[in-house]
Amino acid sequence: MPRGLFITLEGLDGSGKTTQIKRLAAWLGKRIPPGNLVLTRQPGGTPTGDAIRALLLDSRSTGLVPMAEMALMFADRAQAIAEVIQPALDQGKIVLCDRFTDSTEAYQGGGRQLGSAPVLAMHRLICNDLQPDLTLLLLPALESSLERARRRNQRVEAQTGHDENRFELEQDAFYARVWEKYREIALREPARVVLIEGDLPIGEVSEQIVAAVAALLLRTGEPQS
Q: Which of 34, 85, 152, 157 is most buried, judging by how many CB atoms fall within 10 Å of its CB?
């Protein structure tokens, strides 16, 4: 059985990933056989990953040093690959994942200033160097992304009691480094990463995403219903 396709969405919180993943999943659901699409996220997506996510994103998790933070991200990723991603790919399915190692390179490598080298070394060791077939990177203006993310997380906490504000408490300089590292990744790997930059309407972003995914399906001969 041919290996499935691994598609990731990346970007700052507030970049519109959640909306675009839903739109892309709906588009794919009409074009591939039923049951052939797996949606997941990082951190999270497994019981172990959800516990790690709660620790990593809770604003009460103070004193977590950058290397420990990166190690937890990769612990979550190793579990997700073993439990969700690799089995689905082995079954020929399409895996659509909200964040992968590019996030760790951007947030811990860039934001925390650990650099790209240790992140990529950990990826080779922990993830057996598993690479997405396509990465869709949403990179609107930094200021608008931060405003949306902070507003959304405050709303979610008020509605559900779930606190995922730890990263949103960082200063703007941290996010400027994350933004720049994301752009560096896109420039370094243009064959894999499709960069969608600027404050574009939701529909226009969706059109660019669909075009990139349609080209991948055509190129790989993925079965379509």
A: 85
* Residue ranges covered by each domain of the chain: 5-220
> What is 5-220's CATH number?
3.40.50.300
At residue 144 the predicted structure's pLDDT band, cuts being 50, 70 and 90, is: confident
pTM, rounded to two decimals: 0.91
